[in-house]
Amino acid sequence: MTLKKFRMSFFLIVAFACLYLFMMNLIEICIFCQKRNEATSLTIITKNGTFLQLPDINCSRTPPFLVLLVTSSPGQNEARMVVRQTWGKQRLVTGKRIVTYFLLGTTENQNEQTSVTAESQKYGDIIQKDFLDVYYNLTLKTMMGIQWVYKFCPQSRFVMKTDTDVFVNIFYLTELLLRKNRTTRLFTGFLKMNELPIRRVFSKWYVGKDEYPGSTFPPFCSGTGYVFSTDVASQIYNISESVPFFKLEDVFIGLCLVKLKINLEELHSEQTFFPDGLEFSLCRFTKIVTCHYVKPHEQLLYWHKKAGNIHLDCKQKY
Ligand SMILES: *[C@@H]1O[C@H](CO)[C@@H](O)[C@H](O)[C@H]1NC(C)=O
Ligand SMILES: *[C@@H]1O[C@H](CO)[C@@H](O)[C@H](O)[C@H]1NC(C)=O
Ligand SMILES: *[C@@H]1O[C@H](CO)[C@@H](O)[C@H](O)[C@H]1NC(C)=O
Ligand SMILES: *[C@@H]1O[C@H](CO)[C@@H](O)[C@H](O)[C@H]1NC(C)=O
């Protein structure tokens, strides 16, 4: 390589690096961003829209101890099947009833829509309303679940909101909830007390000043898995109309909790929620509640190794 060519490539690399850094840090000019959701969509869809699919349960006859609400998209039927076969299978844990339902929006793909309806008839575990199932509608999806609890299942004791790519140790969660011995104004999970909005335009979590003018977020729990007593669902549902819509569902719930003056609490003195994932180990997994980034085949693998079996004799700490 001649010196001239070398200089040329060096210059190009530096130029691209500068361009990249500039783009990543663009703050206000957002020419590629889609038009933002209108604030009104939340009330219109969550309060007035009818449920297209409802799960097969009468909560006043068989009140669950814990309702697991799992956000999922129409195309993720494999992930739902795996959850049904593992931690989401309806069961009693130390005599407490646990049920798992999936939260779905709608899709423009007619085949997928038809198969969701068939799946709902077959398994009776789908909650669906008519809004487009896209990432930025996750707040609507969560609020749909909360509305369902408020309207159809106020008899339950606790609610957990989680996702299909999360492993949930329902045994340890039940044990900790019973040990906590609290049935009202409880909200717990992986606490995020001092998060800042991401102002980098190309981030998945980019937040414009028009959407969220504040410089810090309220305290909230990671959306990968949070748990609350059922009275909190009704209170969030009630207050949500007066909270400005925000697309990041976990932060939106945090904004509601601030208004309700409900404080976040740790479920245990040691970390039990793992939103950033955790390497699998049988003993370690007996003492966790959630682990994020778990693929369908790993859900099966962990479950069949009896992960979550809190009676496992684990001599060494992990
Ligand atoms: C649920 O069960 C209760 C008590 O058995 C009954 O009164 C009510 O009508 C049932 N609701 C529905 C929707 O079937
Ligand atoms: C959310 O769903 C509504 C109702 O289907 C739709 O009008 C809106 O475009 C969706 N939001 C996004 C960001 O696509
Ligand atoms: C649970 O709390 C109630 C009152 O808040 C108390 O009476 C009861 O003894 C507690 N039970 C346990 C097992 O700590
Ligand atoms: C709902 O909110 C209103 C005020 O916004 C309040 O007066 C009412 O008590 C709340 N109801 C419940 C069930 O929390």
TrEMBL record:
Catalytic activity: a globoside Gb4Cer (d18:1(4E)) + UDP-alpha-D-galactose = a globoside GalGb4Cer (d18:1(4E)) + UDP + H(+)
EC number: 2.4.1.-
Subcellular localization: Golgi apparatus membrane
Main location: Golgi
InterPro entries: Glyco_trans_31
Keyword Ribonucleoprotein annotated: no
GO biological process: lipid metabolic process; protein O-linked glycosylation
Pfam families: Galactosyl_T (PF01762)
Topology of this chain in the membrane: Single-pass type II membrane protein
Signal peptide feature range: none
Swiss-Prot/TrEMBL keywords: Glycoprotein, Glycosyltransferase, Golgi apparatus, Lipid metabolism, Membrane, Signal-anchor, Transferase, Transmembrane, Transmembrane helix
An annotated GO cellular component: Golgi membrane
Listed GO MF terms: N-acetyl-beta-D-glucosaminide beta-(1,3)-galactosyltransferase activity
Pathway listed: Protein modification; protein glycosylation
Family: Belongs to the glycosyltransferase 31 family.
Protein name: Hexosyltransferase
Organism expressing this protein natively: Pelusios castaneus (West African mud turtle)
